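Long-time lurker, first post.

We've been arguing in lab meeting about whether zinc ion would sit comfortably in this protein at all. Half the group thinks yes, half thinks no, and nobody has a model to point at. So I'm putting the question to the forum: if I give you the sequence and the SMILES, can you give me back a predicted structure of the complex? Inputs are below. Any interpretation is welcome too.
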Amino acid sequence: MAKKQKDVVCGMDVNESSKFKSEHNKQKYYFCSESCKKEFDSKPKKYAH
Ligand SMILES: [Zn+2]
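Top reply:
Settle the argument with this. Predicted structure of the protein with zinc ion, as tokens:
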């Protein structure tokens, strides 16, 4: 069963099987859409905890 992850950009729950993901400080982040991923990639420090 895929674990649920939080899309830190928009706050939605996202499955780990999402194809939109990034890595920052060795932590993986999952996104609901390409636009959320791009937003995170442009300002990772704003969203990474
Ligand atoms: Zn999103």
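For your lab meeting: The pocket of zinc ion is lined by residues 7, 9-10, 12, 31-33, 36 (CB under 6 Å). The two ends are 25 Å apart (CA to CA). Whichever side wins, do check it experimentally.
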